[in-house]
Amino acid sequence: MRRWPIGLGLWFLVLATAEGACLVAVWRFFVRSRHGQLLDTVALAGNWIGQNRIEGIVDAALNTVSVVSLVGATATIGFIALIRRRAAVALGAIVLIAGATVTTQVLKRLIERPQLGVDVERAAAGNSLPSGHATVAAAVVVALVLVLPARVRGVVAVIGAAAAALVGVATLSAGWHRPSDVAAAFLVVGVWANIAGLFILVAQRTHGAVVYGMTNKYAVAVLGLAGLVLLAGAAIAMKLTDQVLTTPTDDLSRNRLLTAYGGGALGIAGTASLVVGAVLLTAHRVVPQAVPPPVHSARSGGIPEEVKDGPAETP
């Protein structure tokens, strides 16, 4: 029977708590305070810049996310895990996608956006945090990272983080969501990724001995470094936007609006990189390589021989 990976379990609990705390901080600042609402509004107001040039990309990104595509993606992810004989991972991936999606919809209805005299034209729309489209995109990416073989996991994680960020920025460009809505969605997925990780660890404890697979350390480094750089750029853009918050949005220059919009996009991409990178960091220990049953030796009178070397990753 597999030993309890106590350190890894504690890591999931700590990371889930940290991401949950970040989610609360995003809500309190960008939804509950006038300062945060102003920053979000200025960033959203810049979405018209260059909109004609990227309209096709935006539409394509948003049209890929629907109830039908979510069901299809979930079924595909479960199928991949099952053909690789990873029943616990299949269930964990489904828990992740369902939990994140339901949580987003519940939060969207429970959270109230106070009217603080900011963005009066959209006041009637109410709360939009977290983004449902961004949640679905990120949840599918993280689930894929868990179910795919280790040899392709790193590449898929980097491409997937970029794809999730693209969907998030697309909702901003289309005027559907503010930057904080998307960041909150990614954090919801991050919390559920840790819950799914704990679920898989407990379920796989009955699977016997395991061998750890590839660490994908280069992909983790790329995602981690990219996330930190992107969030640093977003922080600089927010600082520059702070200087013009007393100016009506309609009176701001194109460059000021572009800075705010770009900062929002950087924040979205940075959050996606760090959330996916955190999952990839421990994926090889959550989904280890399988070890075959002990081999019976005729010379030992049928006593099982200890398997010392694990096999290659099951495709």
From TrEMBL:
The record, for Gene3D superfamilies, names: Phosphatidic acid phosphatase type 2/haloperoxidase (1.20.144.10)
Domain named Phosphatidic acid phosphatase type 2/haloperoxidase is located at 90-197
Q: Quick check: keyword Phosphoprotein in the entry?
A: no
Give positions of region: Disordered: 292-315
Q: Where are the transmembrane segments?
A: 60-82, 89-111, 131-148, 155-176, 182-203, 215-238, 258-281
UniProt keyword terms in alphabetical order: Membrane, Transmembrane, Transmembrane helix
- Keyword Disulfide bond: yes or no? no
Which is an annotated Pfam family here? PAP2
> Compositional bias (Basic and acidic residues) spans?
305-315
What protein does this entry describe? Phosphatidic acid phosphatase type 2/haloperoxidase domain-containing protein
